[in-house]
Write a structure and sequence with these properties.
The protein is α+β, with helices and mostly antiparallel strands and 143 residues long. It is built from 3 helices and 10 strands; from the N terminus they run H-E-H-E-E-E-E-E-E-E-E-E-H. Strands 1, 2, 3, 4, 5, 6, 9 and 10 form an 8-stranded antiparallel β-sheet that branches. A two-stranded antiparallel sheet has the order 7-8. Strand 3 and strand 4 form a beta hairpin. The two termini are 16 Å apart. Pfam families: PH_PHS1.
Length: 143
């Protein structure tokens, strides 16, 4: 058992995994124009989902998980230029699951949503690899 923990500890300390992705960012539309009278919005307007559009990149980006001190960082870059860098502990990940045939377990899709941006991987296996490394690394850091 101690050997397994040592192997996981060494692999987590040296996290340097990188994946090729298509990157998209959510751009919200401007809010409704304000009026001079401060009247609360009716419930039908207050509870609307955020309005906006997705803008995707035309070139390939790279996502990397790396450890810095005791924190795990998610970095997205285009042509070696840093585009996004976030602490993983502060992000909310969503990996939609679908089931095409009844009786078979649901599988994840190629896209991972993270708050205001999305990452689409070239294949389902790359997305599974990213989520797998993310889960193991986060679980290790929470020990």
């Amino acid at each position: 058992m101690a050997g397994t923990v040592a192997v996981i500890e060494q692999s987590v300390k040296k996290v340097r995994d990188e994946w090729e992705i298509c990157f998209a960012r959510f751009i919200p539309y401007p809010s409704l124009p304000s009026s001079s009278d401060l009247i609360p919005l009716p419930p039908r307007l207050r509870n609307l989902p955020p309005r906006g559009t997705w803008i995707s990149s035309s070139s390939v980006a790279f996502v990397r998980l790396s450890s810095h001190l005791s924190n795990l960082l998610l970095t997205i870059s285009f042509n070696a230029a840093l585009l996004e860098e976030h602490y993983v502990s502060k992000l909310h990940f969503t990996w939609p699951q679908v089931s095409c045939v009844s009786g078979y377990p649901a599988r994840g899709i190629r896209t991972v949503l993270i708050q205001k941006f999305a990452m689409r991987f070239p294949s389902i296996y790359e997305a599974e690899s990213f989520i797998g490394v993310l889960k193991v690394t986060v679980a290790y850091q929470n020990l």
